[in-house]
């Protein structure tokens, strides 16, 4: 069942190229158009939506956070991302023109289910991005866009996360295609780029030994920080979550721009800091993150940098560089998160921990 791997988590990390490919499968017409008839939601409703609220918990919420950047860019619709349990207990502004996108691997997360009910009571349409067929969330939503990651057994989410992000890209591109705006011409190009992602993810996985070696050498670390900007920010949050839940190490993700507003006080000699660097083909964004690496390095941090192949600007300030293939900015999370998953897995394994069943956690959280 573990496909020859020692743990489900390792197998599931290796399943990721297929999870993304399967989530893309059959959803285009081969001429650069998306076909999502399966949504069975009135197109007029999707055209009239004036706000999207993504609700989810944990890793699924980070997928939603990535989705915000993509959907706002492609569709020019405001997107809010909110933890389902927070959404439920305030008084959110929701009406018939709100599309609520609920993201869940299990489809059984009680916090998310309660938020869906709350949204529907107020007239919002709910579109679920779910991995589990026939689950409660799939049944209670107005429309479902399934991720095709296959069953995820390890408690810590990996392949479901990549499939969720992929499905959200499809949703964003579909809404752009449907509603038409100045970005509609980009849809075909982005679909083509998405099609290349499974091979790129595989390439990152093929380099796993390098990441594992670094992780093993850090098994006595007591705190690791993660910095990212733009879509690298939710990747930083996810990298920190993986390390907390698998290796029981204090880990925190920050928006890189937030450093000087407080967190930089944490940096002292030898503090490990991961930095997720955007593509140099976005020079302004890239330069900002490179200067963030310099800032922490100058204060003694040990910098572990995730950067694109060919990005030489980072080497001077990086103690370790993990390379990812060139990828359009918005799609970078699909490759940049992979070394972080492998890092958490390898560090936890080096500590002798059970990576499939971390302490105190359940695969699906069916209580509020
Ligand atoms: C983290 C993790 C959790 C889940 C969260 C939502 O690795 O697995 O944070 O992402 O509990 O679960 P689902 O997606 O089943 O609603």
From TrEMBL:
Domain SIS: 41-181, 214-358
UniProt-listed Enzyme Commission number(s): 2.6.1.16
Entire protein: shown range: 251 to 618 of 618
Assembly notes: Homodimer.
Keywords linked to the UniProt accession: Aminotransferase, Cytoplasm, Glutamine amidotransferase, Repeat, Transferase
Keyword Repeat recorded: yes
One Gene Ontology term of the molecular function aspect: carbohydrate derivative binding
GO cellular component: cytosol
Protein task: Catalyzes the first step in hexosamine metabolism, converting fructose-6P into glucosamine-6P using glutamine as a nitrogen source.
GO BP: carbohydrate metabolic process; fructose 6-phosphate metabolic process; protein N-linked glycosylation; UDP-N-acetylglucosamine metabolic process
Top-rank EC class of the record's enzyme: transferase
Transferase listed as a keyword: yes
Chief location: cytoplasm
Name of the protein: Glutamine--fructose-6-phosphate aminotransferase [isomerizing]
Residue ranges of the TM segments: none
Catalytic activity: D-fructose 6-phosphate + L-glutamine = D-glucosamine 6-phosphate + L-glutamate
Compartments where found: Cytoplasm
Catalytic machinery residues: 363 (for fru-6p isomerization activity)
Highest taxon listed in the record's lineage: Bacteria
């Amino acid at each position: 069942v573990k496909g020859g791997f020692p743990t489900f988590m390792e197998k599931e990390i290796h399943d990721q190229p297929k999870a993304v490919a399967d989530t893309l499968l059959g959803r285009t017409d081969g001429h650069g158009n998306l076909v999502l008839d399966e949504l069975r939601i009135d197109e007029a409703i999707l055209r009239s939506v004036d706000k999207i609220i993504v609700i989810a918990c944990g890793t699924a919420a980070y997928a939603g956070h990535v989705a915000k950047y993509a959907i706002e860019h492609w569709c020019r619709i405001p997107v809010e991302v909110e933890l389902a349990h927070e959404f439920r207990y305030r008084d959110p502004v929701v009406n018939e023109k709100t599309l609520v996108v609920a993201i869940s691997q299990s489809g059984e997360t009680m916090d998310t289910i309660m938020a869906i009910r709350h949204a529907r009571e107020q007239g919002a349409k709910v579109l679920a991005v779910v991995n589990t067929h026939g689950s409660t969330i799939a049944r209670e939503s107005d429309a479902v866009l399934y991720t095709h990651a296959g069953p995820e057994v390890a408690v810590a989410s990996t392949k479901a996360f990549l499939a969720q992000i992929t499905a959200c890209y499809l949703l964003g591109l579909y809404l752009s295609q449907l509603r038409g705006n100045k970005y509609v011409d980009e849809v075909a190009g982005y679909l083509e780029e998405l099609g290349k992602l499974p091979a790129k993810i595989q390439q990152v996985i093929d380099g796993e030994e390098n990441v594992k070696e670094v992780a093993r050498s850090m098994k006595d670390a007591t705190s690791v920080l993660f910095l990212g900007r733009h879509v690298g920010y939710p990747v930083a949050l996810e990298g920190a979550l993986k390390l907390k839940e698998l290796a029981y190490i204090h880990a925190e993700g920050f928006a890189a721009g937030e450093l000087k507003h407080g967190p930089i006080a944490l940096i002292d000699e030898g503090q490990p800091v991961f930095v997720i660097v955007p593509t140099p083909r976005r020079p302004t964004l890239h330069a900002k993150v490179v200067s963030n690496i310099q800032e922490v390095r100058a204060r003694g941090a040990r910098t572990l940098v995730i950067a694109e192949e060919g990005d030489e600007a980072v080497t001077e300030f990086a103690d370790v560089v993990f390379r990812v293939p060139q990828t359009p900015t918005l799609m970078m999370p699909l490759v940049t998160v992979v070394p972080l998953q492998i890092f958490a897995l390898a560090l936890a394994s080096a500590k002798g921990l059970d990576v499939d069943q971390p302490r105190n956690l359940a695969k699906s959280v069916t209580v509020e």
